[in-house]
Amino acid sequence: MNKVWVKVNSVLYGGWKSVTITRSLEAAASTFAMDISEKYPSTGEQLTLKPGDKVQILIDNKTGEDLVVTGVIDKVEISYSGTDHTRKISGRSLTSKIIDSSPKVKTTQFKNMTVLDIAKSLCGPFGVDVVLAPNTDQGAAVPVFTLEQDEKAFDVIERLCWSRKLIVTDDAEGRVVLFSSTAERNSSGLQHVSGAKNNNILSASLTADDTNRFQFVTIRAQQKGDDEEFGESKNQISYTAEDTRCKNGKQLTKNLSGEGGLSDCKAQAEWEVSARRGESQIWNITVQGWRQENDALWQLGLIQVNDDFMNTSNDLVVTSITYSLDSAGTKTQMTIKSKEALEVDPAKLKPKKDKKGEDDGDDGIYAQVRKDVQGK
Question: Which residue among 158, 258, 331, 358 has the highest number of C-beta atoms inside a 10 angstrom radius?
């Protein structure tokens, strides 16, 4: 069990000595890299995999195989010496096509279409399907949504999805998946408790960094004046949120993007506090093997972590997961964050106006939303 296979045109290639497969809620394209290394190679059949080949990456289970990636080989590396040769392949999910490519659509504006239908229109020309995760509400049809100059297809979809509090990722079939922050839950938890018999954490680290946290965050907004009342004292409003778990005394003051009222300032200030707190703690946890107690692979999503050494007993989110195979066997490495780290910036939920004054979706992508909060 847990042998890895690469399937190309119904042919299975095995015997991989080193494997790394990574999925992430913050990347939207799974990646894979693996190699075969042989001493004194025979003159048998050559590995014929090449860049551009569509592949499926499968892992043996008790009754068959688990599909973990459907993608494309980006790179093949071949090296040899007098005693051995090595062949390496690496690639990404089919969703990499929309990450790399500009939209291939005849229109620059969509009207009265759902988020799913717009995403399908953008992904269809690349042979990539789009699905909603179970129990995901995409909301009503979008009145007007306009493409922006020089956007990649994925950037358009992510900008659109943020306006509906949706996150974009991929699945094992190479499809784009739209889901809310209430992701799937792993059936098994992670544990390192003194004296317990069912501990499963092999190694762990916690980085707690308050560099980008502020005890007080103030958001200011400018309201429109009228013929009788104008000037800064009449039109400027603000709201200050406090991070009650941060006592560094630092103050952050920002302007609300565009016009807004006190409720907009409040929502933005509270998000700044929450998101910065969520990004301030990152757990990296490794377990032996790739599977949970029920034999399912470890997955992205919710997970219970109990670790008395790191004083952690929380329901957290696996935001990135890597299945690895090397001479030491199989391991799963997980990057884990607070659920607060995946909350949507309310500023990105406010539709801007197009040239005709109509609502025009959202104006930011995931990386841009997180850039300031993560201090990058």
Answer: 158
